[in-house]
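Hi U.,

Before I forget, here's the chain from the pilot set. I'm dumping it here mostly so it's searchable later in email.
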Amino acid sequence: MNSRIKGAGFLVAALLLAGCNGSIDDIVPKAEKELPQKLVDQMKSKGMSTSSPIMVRLFKEEGQFEVWKQKGDGGYGLVATYPICKWSGQLGPKFTEGDRQAPEGLYMIRPSQMNPSSKYYLSFNIGFPNSYDRAHNRTGANLMVHGACSSSGCYSMNDAQVAQIYAFARDAFRGGQEAFQLQAFPFRMNAANMARYRNDPNYQFWKMLKQGYDQFEIAHLPPKVDVCEGRYVFNEVAAEGHSFPASPNGACPPMARSPAMAAATAAYDKKYDVAFAEASRSKGKAQSATIDGMKEASLVADWSRRRGQGERVSLEPPALDGRGKVTQTAEMGRIDSAVGRKMAALDSEKAAREKAAWEKAQAIAAAKAAKETQIAEAKAAREAGIAEAKAAKEAAGRKAVAQASPKLDENANVAPEASALAAEPRHPRVLKRMWNKMFGS
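Structure:
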């Protein structure tokens, strides 16, 4: 009876989440799908019931999503592993809204975070930012595990997978679990992987997460999680008369771990240290891309903002290389959305106006050049006419001189006296005397 009442309450909450966009007819079929009988049989064989509590783990680099269920003895056993269809960003935590990073850390999922009317088939909110994220001023909202195999800061599964994950959570809530833990890691935090990333900017953060990872590996129980002094604290108990601060940045109280867990952790760490030292001496497989802190996160967030406004941006978000230099793809484009198409239309209009202005300027320049050519040709013609007339005049002068030259030559052969005779008129008798003197009587 109690289970049925809780189930009804869960369904009412689901309808409230659906709001005006859904109805019981379109919610119930996907949100109420039963787990496959094969999975149910596997759970029974491991001492689990469909309504027993769950815990989930995600590993980015391996691309795996694990579902663990509580067994009859109280410990948790692995019941299902799904390939993550898509997760967003790179290895490393989420820093700021728009950085496209899927979160890393430990989060609690409650019934109010389940969304049966998600546009991505089914989903649940991870709960980012948690206390640790808020202590470090990390921002973001609506970070989900959902279907549809599409991610922009989320962990995305295909629809069939998320339907089963959703059913695991639904049945656990109906069985009385108030919240289940989600552990999101960059990779399986074994010695080999930690050694590969020992020089990464995120290494100290991952070392801290590893403590929670180790606690679960040792006990197969979801670790108790607290945050103080801006750091995660796992399975620690405040000393008598003390408590953990309300603020995640408050001072940690005097703490102690159970003797059994402390001994088990010491033994685990000893083996790990040997394996880590050995792994550090070997080359290991290549590293995956990681985010280089807030600087790179801010670059991506700015890219996301401009892309969301419909601006032309690189098709892939920018990144920082090992030397801190910004790299990005040369190919540019716009988001395929109403705002992107609007911006493209505005750009097209602007390009058309610029083309028309350019063509007008070209026409004006061509007309000006043609006029200048016409003026130059007319001037050249006038100058050619003047030069031709001058040449003709000079030619006429030379001709006149040439025509006068023979007479001058003839006069040059006459005796000076004869020339004088010819030049000056004389009295006949005088002329005669001169003739006789020159040529005889």
